[in-house]
Design goal:
heterodimer, A: alpha+beta, Alpha-Beta Plaits, five-stranded antiparallel sheet, four-stranded antiparallel sheet, 4 helices, elongated, B: alpha/beta, Rossmann fold, 20 strands, 37% helix
């Protein structure tokens, strides 16, 4: 089963290598990993989608906790949350196909961000399923190039999985 | 006043009350060596960096203090890798300082450059690359704290040469604040109450005690627990010497080469009290048949060890010493003799044994050592058959008396580890038992032993083969012995003499009886080359994939 973890880490050099190395050497499967800094420039937030049963997840969480640079881990799989991926797709679209592709683009609420002589470049955000559906729909036209980010996620409502509730350096 | 970061580093070590460091100099670490020149901190010059890190490991195990290692970049750092991994696997607190090429050269494949933090990432508890000289004192403060607290382990600081030479305003931080590192020391009171309840309900409890007892120095609490609830105690290899080897409740080591009594007691117990142990595969054998009828109480400072290999009924995360101190007042004295009678029947029925006739037997030498020292010596071992014979036949009566490479099983550990232990415990009898194979992996440290005037007694079990590998080939490969012959060994007694160390060669029981007691009381280092039978097997043995209750005789 896929689990979504949000992991707050120190924004220090090598932290991504530490986390990625931990997954590979202990044989855990990362489905996707996205990382970027948070509202606090000293803290980065990773959204990690990991495949495994409850026992594997327990180990993943415990082993991640052992990394000194890992500040906080939340498994939000069971929570209500918003999640998004971003994709850029360069798809074949000559004169005869251009209108169709633009229509597809509208349906998926994607945006055209660049245009070539025979191609269109689309930008789309959405959850995993929506991005997959867009990709499948455009495939018959010939996808020249595709890049997508890992998933980022945030719990709905006022519940906080951010760093505020773990205290700052001054408080401690 | 501004000083260089290298000088600051040395002052940090002084603030951490480091009395000595083990090391080997080289180009990029020279600023640190220059700063050491003016310091009271003693530097022990080893003959190979692996010797430094194993020695620091032996020192840390013997004294309970953090071992400190200094080495240069590139080959200096890579030579440390085995020793760092060893300390990581056995949870030994070390702080390792490596030189690195200057920051401007990092990443250019410069002379003696390797990615030290990258290489050591999976074998350190944490590591740092000091890219900002001003942050170095903070890093060192953190490093000592991380190494010694929670589940101990090695922490490495990689120090580029230009950073070491940068002037900084020195101030050693008073406190540590790491928001991502907060080890749990106190066990949860409800869980401790739950454990007490389970113990009261149990009829056939067994205590399974590991290296956590040794590293938290809680042998007294372990003894009190065992005697209060009248439960037999078995040790892992790392746990040996945490419980008196001659105590009636002692079962010996469990697992692959454990005693049958220990393995049968665990297999038949209804409650397994695991203390600072991690259910390693060499302990459990076939995991589904390990303690199959037992409820499990697992106390460990590392939450990731709990539930990793076996399901646990009462998990307690905390320092085993503190947990035991809180558990003990909740327990009632138990006196029911039936389980202990059963256990003692197994002990009588399946004692450890070997044939005394014929060539000198290694087991006999260990028994003799036990007799002469009264189990009070600090015994370091290398890895292999001799290690198992020490584990089986030496009845440790001094807490922390065994220093051995368990998790990594690193041949070459013994000699430098014994050296480090002797440096840490100058007045005590430190004995190394080592095979002829492992001895030759790090025997260059004889030079360090002489230089430091360490009275280590080195006992080589010399059977001119790689005995444990040979045993595996006998059992699993129909005796097709490949690459195990060491018949071109030098004469180790003469080798010792070349270093100015007294060397003896013992060939028989009688020579052991007369010469061993004498050799052990010599004031300086002594090497005792025991020519022992190669036809000796570590027995009993649990075959791969079998339950520990099904050991065979080898």
């Amino acid at each position: 089963m896929l689990h979504t973890l949000t992991v707050l880490v120190e924004n220090s050099p090598g932290v991504l290598a530490r986390v990625a190395g931990l997954f590979s050497r202990r044989g855990y499967n990362i489905d996707s990993l996205a990382v970027g800094r948070t509202e606090d420039p000293e803290v980065s937030r990773m959204t990690i989608v990991v495949d495994g049963d409850d026992r594997v997840l327990e180990q993943v969480t415990k082993q991640l906790h052992k990394l000194v640079d890992v500040i906080k881990i939340n498994d939000i799989t069971a929570d209500e949350y918003v999640d998004r991926e971003l994709v850029l797709i360069k798809v074949n679209a000559d004169h005869s196909q251009r209108v169709e592709v633009i229509q597809i683009c509208d349906v998926f609420r994607a945006r055209i961000v660049d245009m070539g002589r025979k191609t269109l470049t689309l930008e789309c955000t959405g959850n995993h399923g929506k991005i997959n559906a867009l990709e499948e729909t455009l495939r018959p036209y010939g996808i020249k190039e595709l890049v997508r980010t890992g998933k980022i996620a945030m719990v709905r409502g006022t519940k906080n999985t951010g760093y505020q509730d773990i205290g700052t350096k001054e408080e401690n | 006043m501004e000083i260089t970061a290298a000088q600051a580093l040395v002052q940090c070590l002084e603030k951490e009350q480091v009395e000595l460091v083990f090391g080997y100099p080289g180009g990029t670490i020279l600023p640190v060596y220059d700063a050491l020149h003016d310091s009271a901190i003693k530097h022990v010059l080893v003959r190979h960096e692996q010797g430094a890190v194993h020695a620091a490991d032996g020192y840390a195990r013997a004294t309970g203090r953090v071992g400190v290692v200094v080495a240069t970049s590139g080959p200096g750092a890579t030579n440390l890798v085995t020793g760092i991994a060893n300390a990581y696997m056995d949870s030994v607190p070390l702080v390792i300082i490596t030189g690195q090429v200057s920051t401007g050269m990092v990443g250019t494949d410069a002379f003696q450059e390797v990615d030290t933090t990258g290489i050591t990432m999976p074998i350190t508890k944490h590591n740092y690359l000091a890219k900002d000289a001003a942050q170095l004192p903070r890093m060192i403060k953190n490093a000592f704290y991380i190494a010694a607290t929670g589940r101990p382990g090695p922490v490495l600081i990689d120090l580029p040469k230009d950073m070491a030479e940068t002037k900084i305003k020195f101030q050693y931080p008073e406190t540590v604040y790491l928001r991502g590192y907060k080890p749990t020391f106190r066990g949860h009171p409800n869980q401790i109450a739950e454990a007490a309840k389970l113990i009261a309900q149990s009829e056939r409890p067994v205590i399974y005690a590991g290296g956590g007892i040794t590293s938290s120095r809680s042998s007294a609490e372990l003894l009190a627990l065992a005697e209060t609830i009248n439960a037999p105690v078995t040790n892992t290899l790392q746990g040996l010497s945490s419980f008196p080897g001659d105590h009636p409740l002692f079962l010996g080591m469990l697992g692959l080469h454990g005693t049958r009594a220990a393995n049968l007691a665990v297999t038949n117990c209804d409650l397994l009290i695991a203390l600072g142990a991690r259910f390693d595969d060499r302990v459990t054998g076939k995991i589904s048949e390990f303690a199959p009828q037992a409820g499990v109480i697992h106390v460990d400072v590392d939450p990731a060890e709990i539930g990793k290999n076996v399901p646990v009924h009462v998990p307690i995360v905390g320092d085993v010493k503190q947990v035991l101190q809180e558990l003990l007042p909740r327990l009632e004295k138990r006196t029911d003799p039936s389980w202990l009678e059963q256990v003692s029947t197994w002990k009588q029925e399946y004692p450890l044994r070997y044939e005394v006739e014929g060539m000198l037997k290694p087991q006999y030498v260990v028994e003799k050592l036990d007799e002469i020292t009264g189990g009070q010596a600090v015994v370091a071992t290398d890895v292999g058959q001799h290690q198992m014979w020490v584990a089986q036949y030496y009845r440790f009566r001094r807490a922390g008396g065994l220093i051995s490479s368990g998790g990594l099983g690193a041949m070459g550990f013994g000699l430098p580890a014994a050296m480090g232990a002797q440096i840490g415990l100058p007045g005590e009898q430190v004995i190394l038992v080592v095979g002829d194979g492992g001895f030759q992996m790090t025997m260059q440290e004889l030079g360090t032993i002489v230089e430091q005037q360490l009275p280590v007694k080195i006992i080589i079990f010399n059977n001119s083969v790689l005995g444990m590998v040979r045993q595996l080939q006998k059992v699993y490969y129909e005796g097709r012995y490949t690459a195990i012959d060491l018949k071109f060994n030098p004469d180790f007694a003469i080798l010792a003499q070349a270093y100015g160390i007294k060397g003896y060669t013992l060939r028989s029981k009688e020579e052991v009886d007369t010469l061993l007691p004498q050799a052990l009381t010599e004031p300086g280092p002594v090497l005792i080359n025991c020519l022992v039978s190669a036809e000796e097997w570590v027995s009993p043995m649990v075959l791969a994939g079998k339950s520990i209750s099904e050991a065979i005789d080898c």
